[in-house]
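Hello forum,

I keep getting stuck at the same step: I have a sequence, I want structure tokens, and every attempt I make locally crashes halfway through. Rather than fight my setup again tonight, could one of you with a working pipeline run this one for me? It's a single chain of 92 residues.
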Amino acid sequence: MSLARAPYLLSKSLDPALGVFTGFFAYFLHETNPRTAPSSPDLRLTELVRWKLDKMSARRAASSDEKEDAEALKALAESLKAAEAEESRSST
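Reply #2:
Ran it on my machine without issues. Output:
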């Protein structure tokens, strides 16, 4: 008992591309139609994507600042240990 293969609309590689294009085109029509358009310009897809990218870049910058702070603290701790070792050597 073999399963029947699903028929392709155009071809195995063009069907996914057609689906993506159709999705983008449907969303474009949804945003430009006066009845279904977002009431505020801030709710458009481009603004929402820009907001998300800004949020992600701010989070990435904060994490890199934390890494730099951790590296600076590590270097400070190492210099303090070296200074303590030098002080203990000079006192003996």
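The radius of gyration is 29 Å. If your local run keeps crashing, start a new thread with the error log.
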